[in-house]
Amino acid sequence: MMKLYYDETMNPRKVCAVARYLDSPVDFIRVDLGKGQNKTPDFLALNPNAKVPVLQTGNDVLWESNAIMCRLAQIAGSDLWPADDRQVEVVRWLFWDSQHFSRHGGSLYFEHIIRRKFGLGEPDAKAVDEAIGFMRRYFAVLDAHLQQQDFIVASKLSLADFAVGVTLPYADTAHIPLNDFPAVRRWHDRLCALPGWLDPFPVERAAA
């Protein structure tokens, strides 16, 4: 049995969604960030960065959400992490997402959701305006790309979709301008039909 450490935040969301989609045999272990459980000696021994998610398989420990998604797909023998030429394309979009799309979507997520969740005050208006400007720029890139295909890489579902789409379930509460980009909205509607996309976290926590 693998152990997947998470909290109900953005980066663990995509890993949990992949685990749910693949029906991976993982034991979900919640790490309460609000209570500082990510800073205990036991957790820091797993991830010295004090962040979730973390995947533990026996004595092997893996952190960083994109790497964990790849490992889960490998273990499942899933084409979400392709073994052919598409793999380079998946890597390209993973980097693009981390440097551009989810980077700025994550800023809006922080300002509108995390600040409230952890009592960090009101959103920083300057940070919000800057993030929205960048989001619109990169939304346009993604929207043009998705006008020609159903999913990001070769019109076939891959880990790139799970990574790039991770902020979009928060679009309303994080004020992410999803509805202004119809091809991206249609793509996200396809993701919403996947098992686990809208409810990736364990049921007992989602209902709490």
TrEMBL record:
Q: Where is the GST N-terminal domain?
A: 1-80
Which SUPFAM superfamilies does its entry note? GST C-terminal domain-like, Thioredoxin-like
User: Residue ranges of the GST C-terminal domain?
Assistant: 83-208
What would be one Pfam family of this protein?
A: GST_C
InterPro entries in the cross-refs: Glutathione-S-Trfase_C-like, Glutathione-S-Trfase_C_sf, Glutathione_S-Trfase, Glutathione_S-Trfase_N, GST_C, Thioredoxin-like_sf
**Which top-rank group of organisms is this from?**
Bacteria
Q: Which family does it belong to?
A: Belongs to the GST superfamily.
**Record protein name field:** Glutathione S-transferase family protein
Species, as recorded: Ferrovibrio xuzhouensis
